[in-house]
Write a structure and sequence with these properties.
By secondary structure, the chain is mostly beta strands. It has eleven helices and 74 strands.
């Protein structure tokens, strides 16, 4: 603190010296030979709330030293910041002293004296100095307005109060003004007022609304206060409210046609082009017509271009007509949202729904033409059946007829949707089907989807087979388990087959931490991908472990995810590692500024055929509100991919929009993209759009049916109620003095009527239940009467009671007493009558309440709750009748179940002395006395003693047997005989307590959730395995069928089946039934496997004897050629050219076309040719395919395998693989023909020789290309 004071004094001196470096004026006061002087002018000027430092120079003309005490006298309210210690004055030696004080912020502008007094120690010598401080004027003003109601009837005068506060330090004269509207004028009672410093003044303002309004208008009044003579000092505030026309002024003479017009200009580096979009809707012909159009000069521009669209839609009750560009949907197998030009009609009634559609696609080649019809029969609100017919022309051709059924079999949260159909090519022999089954509850959810499309299906499902399953089980509010399985196979016979298997399973933990939400997920992922054709085969498998963590707050959030695993591909024998790291940061710095950043890094063989690659990308986006209300969004992204080449991609986007009070919106968008690597590409685009909403007047019907009229009355007094706000859709009305109202209505749609609860008054409620549905035919010729009554109130609680002790609430006990144990929190209570249903949740003490209820009879019911232990409700449903303004209290009671006693034979009585072979009387005494069976004392019950004595008398003959079994039996029988009357004393014996009936509504224990999840997982696994083996693989002759699977696969399948059956059946009926069913299923499984073995044995005999198949034999297989490399009871393998292996089961091979046997001279050959990277790869592929097909074996339709690989920046390697007839020509001769064919079409060729490395063997023009330095990846050889 001492150092701080010294520093402060130093800067104060510097400030004064800088402020008045040339000041030579001194003020001095002589007293008793002591002189006090100050530097600076006579009057110092300072602002309120500031700190002032005065520098005094004190000198003495006395002949001896003296000590003085300084004292600074300040005006009231001022405070000393730094004082001065006593000073010692020596003759002829001036002393400098600093006095620092603070001027209060509330100081009024004026001149104030500041006096310094010096008093010697002996109080003889004194000196005084007075300085004048001037406080500068500060002008400041604030204005506030009292809140007004959000709605007001037209013609009403609304009064409010304006409050002015002079927060400055000087008096000001203030002028009050208001910016008026045509339909709202303002009168201020005191427009000019004078305010003293710190004075608060209130004045009234009256807003006069226009009484002739016919439409609801929004009024926004801005008040402003200006200090006269100081225009820069001003304050403003505003109020907004809706002015609602009164009943007598509402006329259905004309309406407005809302139109949205957007004018745009798009452009890029090639030029600019205009485009426009317009849309609007209006009532017409008893319905509503919507028109939308888009005009564009370049509809397929890169990023911001729009398609040319013209669409018209007409809607009336039960009828929808669409013309122009629109989308149509009928069913998953027919039309499911396809876009096109055409017409569509939908007619719906209570029991039927009919759809018809004719379409032609745009901007797609070849053009797609569709015509469809759908007829749906609605059986009940949850079940409907439909028939769908669709014909297609174009890429997909044909006709399909389907039948579809939709239902909710297990309640509103379940769904069953199944559809099957046949097409015009194969009809019943190859059907197409789709199935969706889902169910969700609070504890678990599940979804299964199955799809199958015939190979001739006229649509995207052609040749597709797909199965997907998802299941999620919530073990607790924080822990959730989930799994997902997807399998897909798609192909065409004799051409290709593509399959994909995906599995994911894991656990998610979610919890609240401080003010945010935290969650962690752990998932294991397994996927297999395979592509097969008659020329090649590609497969890939991945195993990944994914970990994700996130913490989200309202203003900031962070998510981090990491993946690690391995991938195996048939192109790369060794398994490679995969990794991926992703992070995302979200932050809201201010209310109008948000930031989002992301980072991702990955590596490994990330695709099916590529080599090892690494990818790094990061992005940054922000959105904020710039000055003048401009909302700006920017996004930057950069990505780098490293393989044989280094490819980089950068993108930057910006979007700015400005909205105006008129509703117009101006938007500017721009995008810049740049890609470098194999080639450099840069593009930029921009878009400027201006949207302006229009409201064009149009004539409407003048019939009274276009208005909904009504009246609001108080049922108790019969008087009308004024000022009640009535809403119909987005329209508004207010009742007049007679309680009447009128609202424009739309006769083609259903609207909902609601009442503002605040406007009907305190402790009032309508008899009807709101919102009220108003149909087109409702209240057209009669007025709607809304009756208000004084609201009733129902309160209550759920009280939990428990026994005094555990032994006081047993079966047969008639003296049970309960104690209050608290309220049941979190339960959901529902009250309902014929027209309404209300719900609430109990508080921490178990209480609840329902307010604003109309009089009547209600049913109160506890519909959702969670009990702890063995508890039950005495009743969960009560009937309550409440009258006008009446309040009733109800109570639900929760009490424990009565318990029963069971004596079990355990080793817990090993310490109890057993009866010996002594006299019968001694044995009876020991057994009859309960204290002899326990180390604790207990109450004696004569009834129990008599029962035991009677039992002992019947067992006299066997009393000498002291074995433990007979003694246990005796005790168990005697206790069970009188269990009802002797329950209390029986509790002294070893026993366990069980509940006679399970508590209704109590939640199952956590282990039951785990058990259900395990059984469900086993069920889905078994079903998936059966479908894969017996349905999917059975329909694919080219798939691998193993007669005797390996021991671990067989054991896993059987173990899963046995575990599911034993677990399920045992849970229901007991262990013996579960064991019996599992044995029966094992027998059936063995029979099926044995049957497949017999089928394969038969196939081996047929193939060996009838067709003479043998190892090494060349065969024509599906228009290709292959060699038999394996022939056994398990499988037959054909090796095609390219070393593609096709493995077939013998019985599947019977259905495969083997047209002929080929000679041994047929062989598979490969060639490699180097060409320039500037060559046209499509021309090379076409020329090579046509040329090499001349050398194919006779009787085969040849397919060549041609692959391209970039060696360096100038060379591309072409790999050709094909099966040729060795008798016709040699491999060298075929390559010479291929080189000549490529040179003839202008391809620059390079071939490597041992002497010169890479040499140019063909070129269309001399010196057309520079010589190559690197050829075929050999970086040590020069061209």
């Amino acid at each position: 603190m001492r150092h701080f004071r010294h520093i402060f004094v130093f800067f104060a001196i510097c400030g004064i010296l800088v402020a008045a470096p040339d000041a030579a004026a001194f003020s001095a006061f002589q007293a008793d030979s002591v002189s006090i002087k100050t530097k600076g002018s006579k009057a110092l000027s300072v602002l309120p709330g500031k700190v002032v430092t005065i520098v005094y120079e004190i000198s003495s003309d006395a002949t001896e030293e003296a000590t003085y005490s300084p004292h600074l006298e300040l005006p009231e309210g001022w405070s000393i910041v730094i004082g001065s210690t006593p000073l010692l004055l020596s003759p002829g030696k001036p002393t400098i002293r600093f006095m620092t004080f603070k001027v209060p912020a509330s100081a009024v502008a004026d001149q104030y004296p500041v006096t310094l007094h010096l008093v010697s120690d002996n109080e003889v010598k004194q000196a005084t100095h007075r300085e004048t401080i001037e406080v500068s004027k500060v002008y400041s003003l604030s204005l506030d307005v009292k809140e007004i109601p959000p709605y007001a009837p037209a013609g009403q005068i609304i009064s409010t109060e304006l409050t002015l506060f002079n927060s400055g330090n000087t008096s000001i004269l203030v002028q009050l003004e208001a910016k008026e509207r045509d339909f709202a004028r303002v009168k201020i009672q005191e427009a000019t007022v004078k305010l003293a410093p710190g004075e608060v003044l209130s004045t009234e303002a009256h807003i006069h609304t226009d009484a002739n309004l016919e439409l609801t208008k929004r009024a926004s009044i801005q008040f402003e206060a200006v200090a006269l003579g100081h225009d820069e000092t001003r304050a403003s505030t505003s109020v907004s409210f809706e002015i609602v026309p009164v009943y007598s002024k509402i006329r259905p003479k004309q309406g407005t046609l809302p139109i949205s017009l957007v004018v745009e200009t798009i452009g890029d580096e090639t030029g600019i082009a205009p485009q426009a979009r317009i849309s609007g809707s209006a009532p017409l012909m008893g319905g509503n017509v919507t028109v939308s159009a888009s005009l564009a000069e370049f509809p397929r521009q890169k990023f911001y271009g729009s398609e040319q669209v013209l669409a018209l839609e007409y809607k009336k009750e039960g009828t929808t007509l669409k013309l122009g560009d629109h989308s149509q949907s009928m069913s998953p197998l027919t039309l499911s949202g396809e876009q096109g030009v055409g017409a569509g009609l939908e007619v719906e009634s209570e029991k039927w729904n009919v759809k018809a559609s004719v379409q032609r696609s745009r901007h797609i080649f070849p053009a797609q033409e569709r015509a469809g019809l759908s007829v749906t029969r609605i059986l009940n609100p949850t079940t409907k059946i439909s028939s769908n017919l669709l014909h297609r022309n174009g890429l997909y051709q044909g006709t399909i007829l389907t039948t579809r059924a939709q239902s909710r079999p297990f309640g509103q949260t379940s769904r069953l949707d199944i559809e099957c159909g046949v097409d015009s090519h194969r009809l019943i022999t190859d059907p197409s089907c789709t199935l969706l089954l889902s169910q969700s509850t609070r504890a678990w959810s599940s979804r299964i989807r199955v799809q199958r499309g015939s190979e001739t299906f006229p649509g995207v499902f052609a040749g597709m087979k797909q199965i997907s399953e998802f299941m999620s089980v919530r073990l607790s509010p924080q822990i959730r388990l989930d799994n997902n399985i997807r399998w897909m196979n798609r192909g065409q016979e004799d051409i290709f087959s593509r399959s994909n298997l995906f599995f994911k399973g894991g656990v998610t933990y979610t919890n609240r931490l401080r003010k945010g939400t935290m969650y962690f997920t752990v998932h294991g992922i397994r996927s297999n991908w395979k592509y097969e054709s008659i020329l090649s085969s590609i497969s890939r498998s991945e195993k990944i472990l994914r970990l994700t963590g996130s913490y989200q707050l309202s203003h900031i959030g962070l998510t981090v995810s990491t993946e690690n695993g391995r991938a195996q591909s048939d192109k790369i024998r060794a398994a490679s590692s995969l990794f991926r790291f992703k992070s995302n940061l979200r932050a809201t710095i201010r209310n109008n500024w948000s930031l989002n950043a992301s980072f991702e890094k990955s590596g490994g063989n990330l695709s099916e055929i590529s080599t090892h690659q690494r990818q790094t990308s990061f992005g940054l986006g922000t959105s904020f509100t710039a000055p003048f209300g401009v909302y700006v969004t920017t996004t930057g992204f950069h990505s780098r991919v490293q393989t044989t080449l280094d490819q980089q991609y950068t993108s930057f986007r910006v979007r700015a929009s400005k909205g105006f009070r008129s509703g117009h919106v101006l938007t500017v968008q721009s995008q810049i993209n740049r890609s470098t690597g194999r080639q450099t590409v840069q593009s930029s685009d921009f878009k400027v759009s201006y949207a302006l909403p229009l409201a064009l007047p149009f004539a409407v019907s003048d019939t009274p049916e276009s208005l909904l009229r009504g009246q609001v009355i108080d049922k108790t007094s019969g008087q009308p109620v004024e000022g009640v706000l009535i809403f119909l859709g987005d329209k508004l009305s207010i009742t007049d003095r007679q309680g009447r109202f009128a609202i424009p209505r739309t006769l083609s749609n259903v609207d909902y009527l609601r009442i503002d609860a605040k406007s009907i008054g305190f402790n009032r409620t309508p008899i009807r239940s709101f919102p009220l549905e108003i149909g087109p035919d409702d209240f057209q010729h009669v007025d709607l009467v809304i009756s208000l009554v004084h609201s009733a109130r129902i309160t209550g609680s759920i009280d939990v009671y428990g026994p005094v002790s555990a032994s006081d609430h047993l079966l047969g006990d008639t003296n049970t007493e309960f104690t209050f144990a608290g309220g049941l929190a979190g339960a959901i209570i529902q009250i309902s009558d014929s027209s309404r249903r209300l719900r609430t949740r109990t508080s921490q003490n178990g209480s609840f309440e329902f307010n604003n209820l109309p009089p009547g009879t209600y049913t109160a019911e506890v519909i959702r709750y969670q009990l702890v232990g063995h508890q039950r409700f005495t009743t969960r449903k009560l009937e309550i009748t409440v009258g006008n303004a009446e309040e009733k209290d109800i109570q639900f009671k929760v009490i424990p179940f009565k318990k029963q006693i069971r004596i079990i034979k355990t080793s817990t009585l090993s310490t109890t002395p057993l009866p010996t072979s002594t006299s019968t009387s001694e044995s009876q005494d020991k057994i009859a006395d309960p204290s002899s069976l326990s180390g604790q004392g207990s109450r004696k019950d004569p009834a129990l003693k008599e029962a035991l004595d009677a039992k002992m008398s019947r067992k006299t003959e066997t009393s000498t047997k002291s074995d433990r079994t007979s003694w246990f039996n005796m005790m168990h029988d005697s206790a069970q005989d009188d269990i009802e009357t002797n329950a209390k004393d029986a509790s002294l014996l070893p026993f366990w307590v069980s509940v006679t009936t399970p508590p209704p509504g109590s939640s199952p224990p956590p282990f039951l959730h785990i058990w259900i999840f395990i059984l469900a997982a086993l069920f889905f696994l078994i079903v998936f395995d059966l479908i894969l083996r017996h349905i999917i693989e059975g329909s694919q002759p080219s798939s691998i069928h193993k007669l005797t699977p390996s021991s671990w696969i067989w054991a896993s399948r059987q173990s899963a089946i046995y575990a599911l059956v034993i677990g399920t059946v045992t849970s229901l009926v007991g262990p013996l039934a579960g064991l019996a069913v599992s044995l029966a299923l094992a027998g059936i499984s063995v029979t099926i496997e044995t049957k497949e073995t017999y089928k394969n044995i038969y196939a081996i005999l047929v193939l060996s004897w009838s067709r003479g198949i043998k190892l090494g034999q060349w065969v024509a297989y599906r228009d290709s050629v292959g060699r038999v490399t394996s022939f056994s009871l398990s499988k037959v393998e054909l090796t095609l050219h390219g070393n593609t292996v096709v493995a077939l089961a013998p019985f599947a091979l019977l259905h495969v076309s083997i047209s002929s046997w080929l000679p041994e001279e047929v062989r598979n050959e490969r060639w490699t040719i180097s060409v320039s990277r500037m060559s046209n790869l499509r021309s090379i592929r076409t020329a090579l395919t046509e040329t090499i097909s001349q050398f194919a074996p006779e009787g085969t339709r040849h397919h060549s395998l041609i692959q391209f690989k970039d060696i360096d920046t100038q060379t591309t390697s072409v790999s050709i693989e094909s099966v040729i007839d060795g008798n016709r020509t040699s491999k060298t001769e075929i390559k010479r023909v291929l080189l000549a064919e490529l040179a003839a079409i202008g391809i620059e060729l390079f071939e490597e020789s041992p002497a010169t490395g890479a040499s140019q063997v063909g070129k269309p023009e001399e010196n057309a290309y520079p010589p190559l330095r690197l050829v075929q990846g050999n970086r040590n050889k020069a061209a």
